[in-house]
Amino acid sequence: METLEEPGLCFPQLFNASCRKHTTPRSETLFIYILLSCMSVLTVTLNLLVIISISHFRQLHTPTNTILLSLGVSDLLVGLIVMPFQILLTEPCWFLGDLVCVVFFFFGFITVPASVVNMVLISVDRYMAICDPLHHPTKITQRRVQVCVVLCWVYCAFYSFVILYDNLKQPGRFNSCYGECVINIIGALHIVISFIIPISSIIVLYMRVFVVAVSQARSMRSHVAAVKLQRSLTVTVQRSELKAARTLGIVVAVFLMCYCPYFCVSLSGYNITMASSTNTFMNILLLLNSCFNPVIYAFFYPWFRKAIKVIVTFEILQPRSCQTNIL
Predict the structure, then answer these.
(1) Which SUPFAM superfamilies does the record match to this protein (predicted)?
(2) Under 8 Å CB-to-CB from 103, ≥6 apart: which residues?
(3) What is the 3-state secondary structure (H, E, C) of 226-267?
(4) Which domains does the chain have, with CATH numbers?
(5) How far is the C-alpha of 152 from the C-alpha of 114, rounded, in Å?
(6) What is the pLDDT along the chain (327 residues), one digit of tens a residue?
(7) Whole-angstrom Cα distance, residue 194 to residue 191?
(8) Residue 71 forms beta bridges with which residues?
């Protein structure tokens, strides 16, 4: 009977088949709960503002903002589903069943990669706008962008299904005991698709944008004697390019800061316990990118601040508010 009353087991009635509860300091657990809860609320709020702004105001219905809208949706789902799921994973035991465990991971492997792929699409759009501005309006059309966004989500759903196929086919097959939430994936494939290819693409595009921006700056200095109107236009273009280059530079820095710890440990082959503090910290850092994205991509634009003012003052409820001059 003492075994049945064993407090160190997740399911005492299952005897030795049950997992043992891992002990975590109460202060550390409370800190993680508060941090993840705040991250979840902030991520959902910021991305919801992005979604409402771009969806409601007609002036913002552009190809570039369509990608921003898709990014906002993916990051919103990260804050709404993945972050609360991460809170549950910090618990000593998993009580929701094997199927729920796999389903949560399935949605996680859709939303987080979708956020990364949308970042790549935005980098491509900015690259075309800066490096080939004459053909940008004809090549990056609303129709093509919408098709790319749909393909992005289809690709991420297919990727999630493929990488979790064995887990979906037989939920819980990789658990060593009752009370675990463990999945098995092809680590090399996950690292290449979710990290190496996206970050390589973003860095290459950013370097190209940076080179063009520097070239434009030198060209401007060499044509100081040009007519006043032409010089004014050159200054405007050069400033726009440098601003875009700075934005993409921040994107690369934040992406590396959030994703490098997780994937560097994965590349090293070092094995980390699922519910350990180290694993929790790396997952929190990775998810934090979805909270930073609306700040990087939206708060840098004046139209977003104007849109927020219209939303929070409830002017958005007035008739024809969708035609408000935001730009």
Answers:
(1) Family A G protein-coupled receptor-like
(2) none
(3) CCHHHHHHHHHHHHHHHHHHHHHHHHHHHHHHHHHHHHHHHH
(4) 26-323 (1.20.1070.10)
(5) 7
(6) 334 444 577 777 777 777 777 777 778 788 888 999 999 999 999 999 999 989 988 888 888 889 989 999 999 999 999 998 888 887 778 888 888 889 988 998 899 889 889 988 988 888 888 787 788 888 888 999 999 999 999 999 999 998 888 888 888 888 878 888 888 877 677 788 888 888 888 888 878 877 776 776 666 666 554 544 444 444 444 555 556 556 667 777 787 788 777 777 666 555 445 555 667 788 888 888 888 888 887 667 788 888 888 888 888 888 888 888 777
(7) 5
(8) none
How would you classify residue 314: left for phi > 0, otherwise alpha for psi between -120 and 50, otherwise beta? left
Cα torsion 111, 287, 124, 327: sign:
positive
SS3 assignment, position 6: coil
CA-to-CA distance for 73 and 53, rounded, in angstroms? 12
Q: How far apart are CA 302 and CA 297, in angstroms?
A: 11
Please state, in angstroms and rounded to a whole number, the distance separating the CA atoms of residues 20 and 114: 35
CA distance 175 to 10: 14
pLDDT digits (tens, 9 = 90+) for 113-160: 898 899 889 888 888 887 877 888 888 889 999 999 999 999 999 999
Cβ count near 89 (within 10 Å): 18
Amino acid at 110: I
Residue 94's closest CA among 83, 106, 85? 85
For every residue of 22-85, DSSP letters joined together read PP--HHHHHHHHHHHHHHHHHHHHHHHHHHHHHHH-GGG-SHHHHHHHHHHHHHHHIIIIIHHH
The number of angstroms, rounded, from the C-alpha of 142 to the middle of its chain's C-alpha atoms is: 22
Rounded-to-integer distance, Cα 121 and Cα 146, Å: 11
Question: What does the radius of gyration of the chain's CA atoms come to, in whole angstroms?
Answer: 24
Cα–Cα dist 324/306, whole Å: 10
Residue (of 250, 166, 245, 154) closest to 206 by Cα position: 245
